[in-house]
Every structure is written in structure tokens, then in C-alpha cells.
Amino acid sequence: TCTATHLMSAVTVWLPVYWLAANVKALSAVVSVATVFALWWVIPRALKLPSPAQLEVQRSTAQYARSLIEASLDPLVVISLEGKITDLNKATEQVTGKSRSELIGTAFSEYFTEPDKARDGYQQVLLIGSVTNYPLAIRHRDGHITDVLYNASLYRDEAGKESGVFIAARNVTELNKAEKALLALKNDLENRVIERTGDLEAVNKDLESFSYSVSHDLRAPLRAIDGFSLMLLEDYGNKLDDEGKRLLNVVRNNMGLASAGATSQ
User: Which residues are within 8 A (CB) of 162 and not within 5 positions of it... i.e. 6 or more apart?
Assistant: First the structure.
């Protein structure tokens, strides 16, 4: 309208169309007033807009955050409140065997071997804000399975409104294999201990039987030795010196101990 006003000023030099020039100036005045009121509303909001430098910082921050997400070896997924995948990293593509374009917009639970269990975990996040070490398994498009621990938390926008769920599915396939191998080794060792214990019990029984047999067979000879020693002391004691008597008594005492041991066996 400002341009039209200047143009009409030039036109009226040759043509006396003052009525048209007046109307154009009136229109320009109306637009100017409207612009004032518009600026009254726009300027405060414009002043709140980030500057180019702030926009560059935000862009750099977002790029850095994205680099961290992509650098993670664990699958990371952002899910909407409706349960649809809205963002993901390269590790998620690798563990599912599907591209980013195939995954975006699909239900997150369909890639787990137990979709209902995955959805239950998701509902827990919505109710209490997070879940930790929730065991699940992801199915690759070629069929192989990856065991994971599902860690998820609710995230909010700048206004504090719930925006979705962020999911840290940690690959524990190798850990589970190691635990199974360790359990198998433990069971094998326990079986070996039970087997060896049985063998030792059998050996002990054999030793007990052998000891009983030996003790039983020694009773008669021991009694005979003890009896003859006593007869020797009684019948020929007066012909023996003190040392001879002492030695015979030592024999008798030892026979008595041996006989008592054999009896107890």
C-alpha cells in the first residue's frame, strides 16, 4: 500500500484522479494501523524465538545426542503413547533385521517373542514411570532370537506433558549362555560328588566288613596267647626272673587290649 501511495502521487501529476489517490492513502492508513496492532502481538513472541546462535547450539546438541544414540551397541527405541515406534538406532535395525523405514510407525511389541508380555511391561512404564531389567526376547526376521533385558522410562516434553516411552534393550544372550553352561557344570559336579560319595560309602562298608572279619578271626588266637601266658606265669613263674615276668605281663596286657578291641568290632 505504501508503494501504491507513492505511485498515485506520481500519477496525479498527469491525471487528476485525486479520489483514487485518496482511497489508496486511506487504505494505506488502515493497513498501517492494523500493522501496529499486529506488531503489538507479534513482537513479544518474536523476541522469544531463538537466535541463529541459539539455533546452532540446539542443532549441535541434537546432533550430539543423536550420535550418542547411534553409538550405542544396545537397541534403543522411542515409542509413542499409542505404542508405535517413532525413532530407533542402528542397533535396533540389526537385532530385528529390518530397516528404519520398515520399523517406524509399527507396533513395538510385534518384534518380541512374547508380544503380550512386552505390552504389559509398556503399561507398567505408563503407570509407574519406568521398568528395570524386564526379561524379553527379540526375534530377528531370519528367525534367530536375542535375549534382552528391557529397561524403559517415560519421557515428557518441555511443558511436562507425557510424550512417550524410551526403551535400553540390553543384549544378554551370551550372559544367558554362560549362566546355562555354569549351571550345567554345577549339576555335573553335584552328580560327580554324589557318585563319589556313593563309592566312598561302599568302600567304607567293605572296610567295616573286612575289619569285622579280621577281628572275629583274631579272637581265638588272642585268647590262646593270653591263656598260655597266664599258664606260664602260674606254672613257671618261680623259675622266671623279674624281667621275664614283666615281659609276660606286657604280653598279657596287650592281648587284653587287642581282645577288647576285637570284641567291640
Answer: 81, 126, 154, 155, 156
